[in-house]
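**User:** Here is a favour to ask of a fellow structure person. Please take any protein you like and set down a full record of it. No explanation is needed for now; the record alone will do.

**Assistant:**
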Amino acid sequence: MENIGEKLRKIRNEKGISSNQLEILSGVNQSTIIRIETNVQSPSIETLLKICDALDYSIVHLFEDSADMINLINTAKKLSPNQRQKITEMIEAFLVKK
């Protein structure tokens, strides 16, 4: 079972995009991208949105695996109500943009 980082690396490689190019496209530091892809660092939702947008890939597809969805829900539970609202608004804005 692939984790999110492995999925992102696979998608990036399939699209022929280097981690350096992804940094330019997404605004996410290359070292952060590498740490996410190697499962050293867990990405924030904001970072995932930036990377997925740059890869032209729906963030929803990253969480098709239920284990990933459970991790996302557990992370969201740690946020304050205000933080959850801001994340929800950001996701809704992202979805409307597409």
Residues 81-97 form the longest helix (17 residues). Helices lie at 4-14, 19-26, 30-37, 45-55, 59-62, 66-77, 81-97. The chain has one domain: 4-97.
